[in-house]
Amino acid sequence: SLSVGVLEHDDTGKVDVEARELALTQTTWKLDAAASWRATFPAPTRRAAQSYTSLDIAFNNPALAVLQDAAGLRGCDTVAPEQDSRLLGTLAHRLVQLLLEDPAALSWQHKQVSYWFDATVDELLRCEGMPLLAPGNAVQLTQFKTAAFSGIVALLSFLAAAGVQKVEAERPLKGTLGTLALTGETDLLLHLGDGSTAALDLKWARSGRFRDILEDGQFLQLALYSHMVEAETGQAPAAVGYFTFLDGNLSTLTPHVFGENAWVVIPSDGQTVAQLVQGARVMWDWRVQQWREGEVDVFADGSKAPASTPPEGGLSIKALGPWHTDLIRLFGQQGSEA
Question: What's the pTM value of the predicted model, to 2 decimals?
Answer without folding.
Answer: 0.87
